[in-house]
Design a protein that fits this description.
Length: 728
């Protein structure tokens, strides 16, 4: 977006397979021809080819060829071994950087509201605490990753979405729906969400600030530095607000650093993140205590390495034969991959703000190591991996082991999960068959390995069509909160067993230049599904397990009109999506109130529209020639090109379930929300005004917590390049 006016660099076309499904382009550090990144994305993207400096219209007779090659070159993360968008047997929804910049959202967590199959339940504005779930599951059943590194919290999924990055740090977001245990480990019970950060190979400083309703103010800064084969990026920011409702004020800050080294065949990545926030928790966990308060801190660090070897014979074969069966080459290509990561979370919860009654302190640590690789041979592409993940908690409330006398934390617990996975991919011209198996053992249960198989099949009857079927089995360990938490309003259950589910999915996908659509039906058969429930009006919440089945249908589509029509258009993009879910509970035991698992979205409808208001083009000085109107004004002042555009985001949803008010159950009511963003976009700066909940609608979507009404924000971004040094 902030590109300088200069000669357009040569476009690099990616024809080799990336060895990281989550970062297909992050390592290239140059312009990449992406084309259609996802057929399932439902965000508000500006057209990918319409840059501010100039526009490129693809001739009609070249559209199909370019589209097919784009699909053959874009890597998505739905399997252990990287497959392209064309080969993939699963639908991966992607929010690109342009989608993110155009979206009328306040926080990273708001972005997930734009994805049709994702349920976002927030306890206040700006996503200060957000529960994210997929396909009618719960927030504990989704794996959240940052650049492919699992940052989930074993204490509780309520804290997993505390990201140490901001919206401006993100390059794209990938959403994989359905069980993905063999790809991301056992906790990928209902799906996985991966945030990929920006990685620019330049010297630059970027500053941003915004402010608005309820005393809200935020600021952030980013600095990028590239020297030789090393690249570094650091960002930080913070903000505060009075909140949009009672006892919802907040303050937060974050710091993030990412670096990498890249040489022939070797790539190293490292990252460090820190976040801190404190906020009024209103009636977050119980309507009986409206003055709750919480403080959270997160530290995370990881190191990732890749080593790849391939033959020149195979390199040339891939370049010239991208659509054909790639399993007939006798020359092999190997990729070895390893990563080491650590996450620490500190949580302080006050049941009554300023009092020690009901107050808890928790510190959880996660250490992990992963090693594996993939290789091509005559029978296809095979991937193997091994993961060891150790989780530990120190707490004043959670745990089964009593700490020594005088310790600040009085309880502790720990567990180690070891998993081995293998996957084989058969890649043919019209077929992709991806089958795998994970064997996992957890010290908290016993020392037995249990098997979790999966298979994904795609049939491509034509270049623009794809039919898909998948079956995957997944599991999830109970969180430490579900096992041990005890308070005046909640009581955990130490006898809980891991959740298990069998996920079936059947769907189709259509992709053409400027137009994409998909339909997906899914069935999740879950056993020992964990929920916090009340059995009577005078009861407290208990953790219990049930047999729950979710049956759903999802339909979505998107159009980029400039690419579709072959010329620049006023309306840039439009998208629409709808998800329906029906749930069956097979246990006879009655429940008076469910808090999470049985409070799902029956209906979710989303629609987005981005249109241009004003667009300029750089005007060359023409001696002796008269210009009229704006063109003359731009020529006189030599103004940089800009675009003024508008984005509209609409969603309507109906939730099954109810909240407690005055000792009675009040059903959740359907509601509709309209957001808008007006953006002035220029090469070196951006100005915008956005409004959330334009109709000032009052509603509840999680417990008795009221959601804010109209929230207006205005902001600015500016980027300054320092020199013109690039990665060698």
């Amino acid at each position: 977006m902030y590109n300088k006016h200069q000669d357009r660099p040569a476009v690099f076309t990616w024809r080799q397979f990336s060895n990281k499904g989550y970062s297909a382009f992050a390592s290239l550090h140059r312009q990449v021809r992406i084309g259609i990144l996802s057929a399932a994305t439902l965000a508000v993207a500006a057209q990918a080819h319409a840059r501010l400096n100039d526009s490129v219209v693809v001739p009609a007779d070249e559209k199909e060829t370019i589209d097919e090659k784009d699909l053959a070159e874009v890597t998505v993360s739905g399997t252990m071994a990287p497959l392209t968008q064309l080969q993939s047997a699963r639908i991966v929804s992607v929010l690109s950087r342009q989608d993110i910049e155009q979206a009328a959202v306040q926080s990273i967590n708001d972005l997930f509201k734009l994805v049709t199959g994702v349920d976002v339940r927030q306890r206040g504005g700006f996503g200060i605490q957000t529960d994210i779930s997929i396909d009618g599951g719960t927030f504990d059943q989704v794996t959240l990753l940052l650049n492919g590194i699992d940052i989930g919290n074993p204490q509780t999924g309520h804290l997993s979405a505390d990201f140490p990055v901001s919206i401006g740090d993100i390059e794209r977001i990938e959403v994989l729906e359905g069980a993905a245990s063999r790809v991301y480990g056992g906790q990928s019970f209902g799906g996985a969400i991966n945030i990929v950060t920006r990685h620019e190979a330049d010297h630059s400083i970027e500053l941003a600030a915004k402010g608005g309703s309820f005393g809200t103010a935020e600021g952030e800064a980013r600095f990028s530095l590239t020297t030789g084969k090393f690249s570094n990026r650091i960002s930080g920011g913070g903000g505060r607000s009075d909140g949009g409702t009672q006892n919802s004020s907040w303050g937060k800050g974050q710091l993030y650093y990412q670096g990498d080294y890249e040489d022939d065949g070797l790539r190293l990545d490292w990252q460090f993140g820190f976040s801190k926030k404190s906020y009024g928790a209103n009636t977050f966990y119980s309507a009986s205590y409206p003055d709750q308060y919480e403080r959270n801190q997160r530290l995370m660090a990881s190191v990732d390495a890749e080593y790849k070897v391939w033959s020149e014979e195979r390199r040339e074969k891939n370049k010239s034969n991208y659509m054909k069966d790639e399993t007939n080459s006798n020359s092999s290509r190997f990729t070895l991959h390893s990563s080491l990561f650590w996450n620490r979370s500190n949580d302080n919860f006050e049941l009554i703000h300023g009092q020690t009654f009901g107050e808890n302190f928790h510190r959880s640590d996660v250490f992990g190591i992963k090693a594996g690789g993939h290789f091509d041979w005559v029978a296809g592409r095979t991937a193997v991996s091994a993961i060891m993940r150790h989780e530990n908690i120190l707490s004043t409330n959670l745990g089964c082991n009593r700490r020594p006398e005088g310790s600040f934390y009085t309880w502790s617990d720990n567990r180690t999960t070891t998993s081995f996975s293998v996957e084989h991919n058969i890649l043919l011209r019209h077929w992709t068959i991806s089958a795998g198996l994970m064997a996992s053992m957890t010290s908290a249960i016993d020392h037995r390995f249990r098997l979790y198989p999966g298979i994904d099949i795609a049939w491509r009857p034509a270049s623009r069509w794809k039919l898909l079927f998948s079956y995957n089995k997944g599991f999830r360990l109970p969180t430490f909160t579900e096992l041990y938490y005890k308070s005046p309003t909640h009581e955990g259950n130490r006898s809980l067993k891991p959740e298990h589910n069998h996920t079936f999915s059947l769907g189709g996908q259509y992709v053409a230049p400027g137009l994409s659509a998909s339909i997906r039906g899914f069935y999740h058969h879950g056993t020992q599904m964990i929920d916090w429930v009340m059995y009577a009006p005078d009861d407290i919440f208990h953790t219990a397990s049930f047999r729950l089945d979710n049956l759903g249908l999802q339909v979505q589509g998107k159009a980029s009109f400039a690419q579709l029509l072959g010329h620049d258009t006023w309306v840039q993009t439009a998208s629409i999506g709808y998800t329906y879910i029906h749930q069956d509970k097979h246990d006879a035991e009655g429940v008076w109130k469910s808090n999470y698992a049985m409070e799902y979205l029956r209906h979710k409808f989303v629609a987005s529209l981005t249109h241009r208001i004003i667009k300029s083009k750089r005007v060359k000085r023409l001696k002796g020639e008269k210009e009229k109107g704006c063109a003359k004004l731009f020529q006189f002042f030599n103004v940089s090109p800009f675009q003024l555009s508008m984005t509209w985001d609409f969603r309507w949803q109906q939730r099954i379930g109810s909240y407690v008010s005055g000792g009675e159950l009040i059903p959740y009511h359907p509601y509709a929300i309209l957001d808008a963003k007006l953006m002035w976009d220029a090469p070196r700066y951006q100005l915008y005004v956005q409004a959330s909940n334009l109709t000032n609608h009052r509603y509840r979507d999680l417990g008795s917590v009221p959601q804010p009404g109209l929230w207006v924000m205005a902001g600015a971004k500016v980027k300054m390049e320092i020199g013109n040094r690039k990665r060698r």
